[in-house]
Amino acid sequence: MDITKHLQIDDKIFTIRGIQVMIDRDLAELYAVETKRLNEQVKRNMERFPSDFLKESASTRCFN
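Above: the chain sequence. Below: its structure as tokens.
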């Protein structure tokens, strides 16, 4: 991964109340999939993710 791409990813990671999060649309963009599809796959495969992977807020989803 080149330094430019690394900096772009770092810009999309936020620290909220001491927890690093990434908004679902940014994670979907990173993997070149639709946000809707990313969320579907996460719901279908929750057992594959750490228990603190998904945090939902009233307005958006955030991934740790």
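The first strand starts at residue 13 and ends at 16.
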